[in-house]
Amino acid sequence: MRSTKIVTSFIKDNEKLLILKRSDKVKSMKGLWAGISGIIEKNERPLKRAKIEIFEEVGITENMITLVNSAEEMRVNSPQYENHEWKIFPFLFEAKNPIIKLNWENSEFKWINAEELKNYDTVPSLQKVLFNLL
């Protein structure tokens, strides 16, 4: 089975969590709601990649976020690709009143309560990833 290592991060501001809607310009999971995600390059440390993705996708710099929690690597089968799994490295960060500047990878963002996530059409296992962090 082929696998791809990715990070998935959530940003928390007070009791609200940031979720992003993947744009129609990305390769996979178009139109689905997700955390801030990206592929881990070669031997890169997952935490480093998480911070890079946060800056690239929502414009929040490293000095504006605080790591609250991380969870063990999770394996999720990919419904889009046969014989493929995602190795997800989950992170939860906190930011105070961040200004969100989306790049091309996402078309929308929302601040929600954790229990509202079930009302959204998300990437596979997003709820499971989030609840491992809370």
List the helices and strands and how they pair.
Blueprint lengths: L1 E12 L2 E7 L10 E2 L1 E4 L6 H13 L7 E5 L3 E4 L6 E11 L11 E7 L13 H6 L3
Parallel strand pairs: 1-7
Antiparallel strand pairs: 1-2, 1-4, 2-3, 2-8, 5-7, 6-7
Describe this structure in words.
The model has no long low-confidence stretch (mean pLDDT 93). The longest helix has 13 residues. The radius of gyration is 14 Å and the shape is globular. It has a single domain, classed as Nucleoside Triphosphate Pyrophosphohydrolase (Alpha-Beta Complex), CATH 3.90.79. It has 134 residues and is mainly beta. Strands 1, 2, 3, 4, 5, 6, 7 and 8 form an 8-stranded mixed sheet that branches. The protein starts with a strand and ends with a helix.
CATH architecture: Alpha-Beta Complex
Q: In terms of quaternary structure, what is this?
A: single chain
Q: Which shape, going by the Cα principal axes? A: globular
What is the SS-derived class? mainly beta
- Number of structural units classed as domains: 1
State the helicity in percent bands.
Answer: 10-25%
The count of DSSP E runs of length 2 or more, i.e. the number of strands, is 8
Low-confidence stretches: none
Total number of helices: 2
CATH class: Alpha Beta
